[in-house]
Design goal:
two-stranded antiparallel ribbon; ten-stranded antiparallel β-barrel; 21% strand; globular; 9 helices; alpha+beta
Amino acid sequence: MAYPAQESTLVGLCDGEIDPRRHRCSFLTNKVGGLPDWPPDVSPPAPSCARCGAPLTHVVQVYCPLGASSYHRNLHLFACPRAACSGRTDGWKVLRSQSLEQAPSRPDPAQGAPRPATDWCDSADDWGVEEEEDDGLGPDGGVEEAAAPQTHDPELEVSSRLQDLCLATPPQLETLPPQQEAPVLRAYFVSVVEESDLCTEEDADLRHAQRLLRDYEKREGLVVVGETQNGGGEEKYEKTRARHGDAVFSGFMKKIALCPQQVLRYCRGGQPLCVSSSLSAAPPACPSCGGGRTFELQLMPALVALLRWTDSGGEAEPEFGTVLVYTCRSSCWSGSVLEEFCSVQSDPDQQLFT
């Protein structure tokens, strides 16, 4: 089924660093960095970069259940830790996982019901009883003496079995590279507010951001041509060709001026806020059900400043303009983690030098 579109846009803000000694995260936590927290009964994959093959670093975890669904639902975004890949679409992966909100408890068939300790002790040495049953009587009906077990030498039996073992490593295992671990980013909580609530703020930071925006518009080609005196009336703008040739970037900057510190935007079924007019092709169909995909969320430029490795060694942190995420419109689920589609856009000014 297709789920209704999100009516309002939600904005994610950084809300303090996560201290593992004080805070315990779960799949219900919205966060930046750290290790991914998977829902119950979900086998965590180990994603790798499609460009260079390096293990991907966990960047963002979003808990995003759908209103008409009975599933918990998560999106995990991963990026290549190598600077040459993090600004490219093929250096990122988005994984969607789900689990029932009230999954019935089922006993593990391999374990079954727990046995009393006395029962386990009574049968602890019954190895091979079904293969060689013996009534314990000798040929004359009397009790047979336990001569054989006394002459049995366990060391000789183990030695004979070791002769049949091959200690050589299989050829396919000799050429495997050593297991690598992806570097970990410092973790931060993400709080979520509605964008409409930000429009009523009249603090100094907002007024400062608006002044910066006005200066940017004048500098980049949006020139004020009809402003009334004393600040009255509505300003009119004459659009000229922006210096970087992409007026979409001006609209991007104007939109985020209400909250420049936002690290993500969420509006399932809405329209992405593009940083460049050079859009990628339409997202491919869902590989699981064959249905279409819809826009769900995007990462914002302010997030780049938060991405820092837990250890100082290593390459530069991931950089991007914005990362657009598209997911299955029906949010199909077959029990295994599904890969969704994402597109990375760079700052137009950066594209001049790439």
